[in-house]
Amino acid sequence: MERELASESIFLLYEETKKRLDELTILYEMTKISHSALHFDLMLSEIVKAISHFLGLERLSVLLFNEKSGRFTLHPSSIGLSPKTIETPPLGLDQGIIGWVVEHKTALLVNDVRNDSRYFATEEGILSEMAVPLESNGKLIGVLDAQSYKKEAFSKEDFRLFEVAAGHLATLIESAASEERYRTVVESALDGVLVMGEDFRLTYVNERLAELLGYPREELLEANFISFLDEKSQALLLEEKNSHPKELEEASRYEIKVLRRDGAVRYVEMSSILLRDYHGNRNKIAFLKDITEKRKMEEQLLQSEKLRAVGEMASGVAHDFNNSLAIILGNTQLLLRTIKEKEQVETLKIIEKVVKDSAQTVRRLLEFTRNGIREDLYSVDINMILKEAIEMTRPRWKDEAQGRGFPIEMVTDFGKIPPAQGNVSELREVLMNMIFNAIEAMPTGGRIEIRSFHQGGKVTVQVSDTGIGMSEDVRRRVFEPFFTTKPFSNSGLGLSMSYGIIKRFGGEIHVDSEPGRGTTFTITLNAGHEIQKDKIFEEPLEPTVREAKILVIDDEEMIRKVLHQVLSKGSHQVVTARNGLEGLQLFGQEKFDVVLTDLGMPDLSGWEVCRAVKAINPQTLVGMITGWGTEVSEEKRKEYGIDFVIPKPFDFHRILNLVATSIQSPK
Predict the structure, then answer these.
(1) CA triplet 134, 140, 144: central angle to 5 degrees?
(2) Structure pTM?
(3) Which of 526, 551, 575 is the last residue of a domain?
């Protein structure tokens, strides 16, 4: 379901982007023509051609309103009309579809004029028509009208773009009439607009471009545009210039990166055209759209898809692996209770430690693939965690670095910030990971700068280094699981896990880097409000001595045997069942104090078993056994009647204490 929603979101994003691109294309073409045309009639003729070509129109006409006569005149720029039609006397306000559009000041699409009483035939064979009033500042200045000899010739998207073009055309006509073309069209643009010569010197910039670059407008005039780009973008523009040394070129579009005055990097989509001015000089007119947030969103969607795919694989592997570890750990701990020989005890303890370490490896593998925001979060002091992370990594960034003769300077700037929402140990792990990555990126020494600040209701942490930096390809893949540039010394899971941890805290993590310019990791967290931790995960103080009758339901025979032996050692009476159906049948025949059920079973899932047990006897304690690494929310526990959760592999003492504490706890 989540994959379908993600795919749908990507599709909708694609559709919206395509619409926006089509809209910008036609507006750009019209604006370009308005800038280059020397004469109003020539401008209008070229714009009509551009609209007709873009939408594939058979007949397109512009009717301009004459305030003195109160009538409409067909402009000679109209396309597809016969000379007889063009010579027709001026039209009144009450004729045909155009008259209706004028009267109601509303655009109209009719895909079969034969069935529309408003249609007034000016030429035989017309079947479809769409018309849009040309208005500027609330004043009617004309009508843009398209006709076709085909029925159902115009789609809704054609009509939408036709309306957009008409709205812009009205502005251009009014601007040309008032000699305010640049100011009206360009200055009101939502995107940055520039004009520069062949030497890349800026001769015009609008206010939006000045905001994008972070400079006052006057400082940009006569500045070299190349100086505001990264090296790759500079090479792209120079290559484009050299590939078209003499002739004019078609409109070109490409993605570049601009460097703001404050040092921030912005992704920009640039559309440009080369035009000659009145003196024959070649100038480039370009529209620059800031797509930084869009690019980040695309990267996040891609990262989420990759994590989801790995998560599906990891969950299945974790379940099988945890089942095996549960059998090994259970039997090992049972042997430790009976064997007294020191050498054998030491061997079993080694096995026990390896199994527990392996369980932690599985847990860490699942950390960065788990979806949803965690519930066991607290209000944490980020500055305190940062200090702890710096101190715990001191041997690496200070002692070891100095020993190699390449010292690393640690610079901190801790702001006055509110508590953040998270988990102390995991946040410390993430921040230590950031510091270790910074150290590895500076083999010849350098500076690590760590700062924290509060902005926009969020707590932000930045870890920067002056190291070797990353290429764009590495930067895009840095959070991918198992991706590493050091395959023989790094598993490639550290940053992936950091990404997963921060996302599950409801936060964001980004990386900015360029080769030779260092790297900055930015972590953004929600301001904290304490959430009570689930008590089922806390260790009990003292186990009860009360004996209980326990039903164990699991489809794995070895798991059933281990649980039977472990619980029997606690003086409990244990009955086992191979699946959910058998377990419910036994539950209906005998009285049990506790039911322990596996989550994943072939006939009835653990969820269904828990719900059925509580429906029969709400007083029976129900425990969920899972090897999926699933975190059960308070809401889901209440829904299915789960009293406690036992993750696999289960520790001998922990499972006895957990069962005992649940029995003695008041209901």
Answers:
(1) 25
(2) 0.39
(3) 526
